[in-house]
From TrEMBL:
Reaction catalysis annotation: UDP-N-acetyl-alpha-D-muramoyl-L-alanine + D-glutamate + ATP = UDP-N-acetyl-alpha-D-muramoyl-L-alanyl-D-glutamate + ADP + phosphate + H(+)
Family classification: Belongs to the MurCDEF family.
Protein EC: 6.3.2.9
Sorted UniProt keywords: ATP-binding, Cell cycle, Cell division, Cell shape, Cell wall biogenesis/degradation, Cytoplasm, Ligase, Nucleotide-binding, Peptidoglycan synthesis
Lineage: Bacteria, Bacillati, Bacillota, Bacilli, Bacillales
Function: Cell wall formation. Catalyzes the addition of glutamate to the nucleotide precursor UDP-N-acetylmuramoyl-L-alanine (UMA).
Record domain Mur ligase C-terminal: where: 313-426
Name of the protein this chain belongs to: UDP-N-acetylmuramoylalanine--D-glutamate ligase
Naturally occurring in which organism (per UniProt): Domibacillus iocasae
């Protein structure tokens, strides 16, 4: 950990706890800051806040009083989930007070370079692939961010020989001031989180923050199949390394004649890859570009791609049973994610779908349902799914109340050679606390067949 003094004696407000806020508060205290913590959860229900209180920090819980800012803070470190429309954040910005996220702190103290991954879809798969490839090649890696541990906590133990592989959300990247990854990846950009950002322009701008402090010594890996994204990358000072599923790119990663290349060097045949889906080819190409730039061998890359069957809840292969293959894509909480899952399979699909009703329909999935032979619908959107399936000309449509019933009905509707796919296109909160819980129950049902 780098020894820095820029926070010594500074008054810092940590707004919002959870894991990142707790880690930020403890680190700032270690760096000599005068820390005040403010969290919305009442103190009696807030174990993290009580632990900081015992550390001698000032802790204010239960509300976010605007009068807090009268104490003359030098800096605000906010939880990424707190929007900039929050009254305290709005006033801090108006007053010219720096507002950062915990990732920025990690950048200040880390002795290891960062490989940062962002994008609308594919972040977690890409991050996992990079980490696995680096490990297989014997390189020191530290997994951080949304998929790993809190960055400002784990980088305290990083050495210059390590690589911090970090998944970054647009929420985190909005708080970037000096954070600089040596290698940055933007997998793709689609409309998402507009309720938080307010516009696609702000959302895309937040994603592009990943490269704003990069120099000509750094690398920006970008999806060349998205012209708008490629155009935006032109503003970066980093070396731009494109990847493409559809076209040959001599200075980047691409596919030609069934083989993946990086900068005209053959890496491995596409046929050797276990992970299904054309959308995953984007993730694979970006991961290969990152690790090749880091000196990882083709042997390590090939080993991982021959064995890696997916991140849990993201088109995850669960089991083959009686000639049926089961996939868990519970992370598909919107139609865009389900569209990607459906395009991954050539075999007939039994689709399990449904969940929280957010008011939208599923008409945009109609062109992608041609391989679906049956739909088992559940949750608040079950009736909407029935109507969509009928419009698509699907003859086999059933409703289920619980996941075990849905799996049993899917099996009854299937034949040998079919894929049974959970890809709900909806959030889980009508029946489950999280998409992880929904996926875990699906896995349990499949494994008890």
């Amino acid at each position: 950990m780098k020894q820095i003094d820029q926070f010594s004696g500074k008054k810092v407000l940590v707004l919002g706890l959870a894991k990142s806020g707790l880690a930020a508060a403890l680190l700032l205290k270690k760096l000599g800051a005068d820390v005040t913590v403010n969290d919305g959860k009442p103190l009696e229900e807030n174990e993290a806040a009580r632990s900081l209180l015992s550390e001698g920090m000032k802790v204010i819980c239960g509300s976010h009083p605007l009068t807090l800012l009268d104490e003359g803070f030098d800096l605000v470190v906010k939880n990424p989930g707190i929007p900039y429309s929050n009254p305290i954040i709005s006033k801090a910005v108006l007053d010219g007070l720096p507002v950062i996220t915990e990732v920025e702190l990690a950048g200040f103290i880390s002795e290891a370079p960062f490989i940062g991954i962002t994008g609308t879809n594919g972040k977690t798969t890409t991050t996992t692939l990079i980490n696995e490839m680096m490990k297989k090649d014997g390189k020191g890696t530290i997994l951080a961010g949304n998929i790993g541990e809190v960055a400002s906590e784990v980088v305290q133990h990083a050495t210059p020989q390590d690589h911090v592989v970090i998944e970054l959300s647009s929420f985190q990247l909005m708080g970037i001031q000096e954070f600089r990854p040596h290698i940055a990846i933007i997998t793709n950009i689609y409309d998402a989180h507009l309720d938080y950002h307010g516009s696609r322009e702000e959302y895309a701008g937040a994603k592009m923050n990943i490269t704003k402090n990069q120099t000509e010594e750094d690398f920006l890996i970008i999806n060349a199949d998205q012209e708008a994204l490629l155009s935006m990358a032109g503003a970066s000072k980093a070396n731009v390394i494109p990847f493409s599923v559809y076209q040959k790119i001599e200075n980047g990663a691409y596919i030609e004649d069934g083989t993946i290349y990086f900068q005209e060097e053959a890496v491995l045949p596409v046929a050797d890859i276990v992970l299904p889906g054309s959308h995953n080819l984007e993730n694979i190409l970006s991961a290969i570009a990152a690790v090749k730039l880091s000196g990882v061998s083709n042997e390590a890359i090939t080993h991982v791609l021959k064995t890696f069957s997916g991140v849990k809840h993201r088109t995850q292969f669960v089991r083959e049973w009686n000639g049926r293959k089961f996939y868990n894509d519970s992370k598909a909480t919107n139609t865009l994610a389900t569209k990607s899952a459906l395009t991954a399979f050539d075999s007939p699909v039994i689709l399990l779908a449904g969940g929280l009703d957010r008011g939208n329909g599923f008409d945009d999935l109609l062109p992608y349902l041609h391989s679906v032979k049956a739909v088992v619908a559940f949750g608040e959107t079950a009736e909407k799914w029935r109507e969509t399936a009928e419009e698509a000309g699907i003859q086999l449509i059933e409703k289920a109340k619980y996941m075990n019933d849905a799996v049993e009905r899917a099996v009854a509707l299937s034949e040998r050679g079919d894929v049974i796919l959970l890809s709900p296109a909806c959030a889980s909160w009508d029946q489950y606390k999280t998409f992880e819980e929904r996926g875990d129950i699906f896995i349990d049902c499949v494994n008890t067949l």
